[in-house]
């Protein structure tokens, strides 16, 4: 049997072929199918709605785009597509690609990213934690509503878990929340949210 490595894509080729398709992202040249399901999208939409309500209530100069990619400057062939991303409007003028494509290159533009876990949970719990911290994104949330993550990430017994990664210095400090617990976000301390509220 001969092993055939997957065809690697450049960032430019990915944007041309898959840039408008919310199903895919690119990690180190490899195309990743994010495998969204109805319940996955329902959780992402519910979280986005609750964040947006706070943005309006607090009159914050932030926005939540419908579709957006993050191009980490240190990664040549990577285009990350968070399930929810919160951007600082005043920083968009410094984004070199924003006027033509919904692509963010500067971590200072991003206030928060949210990933809703599906079967490719390894990227969200490992690779993206490092990428988002390196970019200096203040908070990264992982909504693991089915308890799919490895036990090293969500513990035992495996159960629905919401993790808030808050940036301290150049690395994230994680805090986990289970069903019935109020989720605490240092970035949006007034947010009233429990994992129960967004379960499909």
Structure description:
By secondary structure, this protein is an alpha+beta fold. It has one domain. The protein has 5 helices and 10 strands. It has a 6-stranded mixed beta sheet. Strand 9 and strand 10 form a beta hairpin. The termini are far apart. It holds the Pfam family Uma2. InterPro entries: Nuclease_put_TT1808, Restrct_endonuc-II-like, Uma2.
Q: Sheet bearing the most strands, described?
A: 6 strands, mixed
Number of strands: 10
Number of helices: 5
What general form does the structure show? globular
Order of helices and strands: HEEHEEEEEHEHEEH
Main sheet strand line-up: 3-5-7-8-9-10
Number of domains: 1
Q: Averaging pLDDT over every residue, what do you get?
A: 93
Helix and strand content put the structural class at alpha+beta
Give the terminus-to-terminus CA distance.
43 Å
From the structure provided, what is the oligomeric state, counting identical versus distinct chains? single chain
- Are there runs of 5+ residues with pLDDT below 50, and where? none
Share of residues in helices: 25-40%
Based on CA atoms alone, the radius of gyration comes out at 17 Å
Per DSSP, what share of the residues sits in E-state strands of 2 or more residues?
A: 15-25%
